[in-house]
Specification:
CATH superfamily of the largest domain: Glucose-6-phosphate isomerase like protein, domain 1
Structural class: alpha/beta
Number of strands: 15
Distance between the termini: 37 Å
Strand content: 5-15%
Number of domains: 3
Radius of gyration: 24 Å
Largest sheet: 6 strands, mixed
Shape: globular
Number of helices: 18
Bound molecules: glucose-6-phosphate
Strand order of the largest sheet: 1-2-15-12-10-11
CATH topology of the largest domain: Rossmann fold
Length: about 525
Amino acid sequence: MEQWKSLLDCEAFAALQQCAQSPFDLTRPGNLTPERLLHFRCSGPEFDLHYGCQRLTGEVLDLLQALADECQLVQQFRQMRRGTVMNRIHGWPSEERQVLHTACRDLFTEVPACAPATKLAQKELAKLRTFLDEVESGAVCNRKGESFVNLIHVGIGGSDLGPRSIYEALRAYRKKGRQVFFISNVDPDDAAAVLDGLDLSRTLVSVVSKSGTTLETLSNEILVRQALRQAGLDPARHCLAVTGESSPLDNPERYLRSFYMYDSIGGRFSSTSVVGTVMLGFALGYGQVLEFLEGAARMDAAAEGENIRANMPLLLALVGIWNHNFLAMPTLAVLPYSQALHRFAAHLQQCDMESNGKSVQRNGQELGFQSGPVVWGEPGTNGQHAFYQLLHQGTEQVAIEFIGFKENQRGRDMEIHGTRSQQKLVANLLAQSLALAIGKDDENPNKRFAGNRPNSLVMGERLTARSMGALLALYEAKIVFQGFCWNVNSFDQEGVQLGKVLANRILSAMQGEGEEGGLENAFLGAVGIE
Ligand code: G6Q
């Protein structure tokens, strides 16, 4: 049985704590030089990571390298990709599963890391390709012989956030006329807002639930099926299932097509499985799905390098640990300077906080140090007019990861007062990074900027299907590396169970209530129910 070290058990820990007593001062004249900004840069697939505006030195990087080596972070990542059971708590009943989301995109080398899992992914991709061809050729069409132009993606949590953020990121490249809509919340207004006014006769509905038992998704599926029937349509001609094999949703007679995902793919890591690719393939076409997967695969491969200075996800993870565990920054803002990434922080919130918001180690013992930070964010420049005040002058210190692109997606821009809007966007991005780092003195205390607000910049050429795949995999690997370093199980989510159980008890109590005021009674009554 493998027993992994946490950062606390590492020799480098004390030395890093020592360095954290007087971290690199970005505000000191002559410290934040152009040479530093060029030197502290790590190139990876589709992106460069610029980390000169972090409060670290070469010595800190060496110690973070020692930490990575002692905790065997890369070795664990390699084992994960090759099928070792990583989703477990030693000595306690736990999920005991492999963690193989990377197998969904391990399609571009002759020897995949875990061939059986990749074979399953390939099988589903082949089915998807056939299906998309049939939609394209008109072999799959509505009863009147018309093509499908809309798709409603029904799912929640991991079956919604990743796909939704990817669709928003890439909608600029949609096939002509194709649109995707999302229904997730059990709030009936969510479904109503999508269904009202939509031409259902030309709409496919993809019901996405790995377990096939999720209350919100099953309720929304019933609402959508009812709407289809009310429109005189046969749901079996319009509905697709994306689910686990032999789940309650796995009933091909009720669906036009069924696509499968597997136990080894966690919901929040499932965007490159059929959970994301059915939606993406419909919207953008199969060729773009392959681009997306290849971008992710390249990043996975880069994450296997031992040298932290050359391994972007590992470096991002360790810089995050430096800020969180040693410089005591409780939250992380991910700020994309790309409107298309406006839902990406919401996806990362789940992927990061559900994975690493844990208090016990993988041996069941209490952690005794901080695990995952609070993650949040909004696109720039909008955020600059909202919460950046606190970032610059607040008492709360926030670690920041900026994401930016040199080019815009749609190629529609113009020169206004001597510069294009894309230039204005990038200028603001660089300016914020610098201003946060170096600050500004002023005799008026209210106009003083303390500086030393650490930030990194993930910079790419253009947001495309390929770079989106790489960005997604960058963050997935970062989260996994941090979880390994904290020695938590990043792949379960026991913390969401209690609320679900209580909600079901309240619902049972509500079924017995017909009167006004039943809600409060149910609420109170549930507390006493065994
Ligand atoms: C993600 C979680 C969770 C899950 C949803 C939806 O890692 O497990 O967010 O994705 O609860 O679950 P189903 O896909 O089973 O409906």
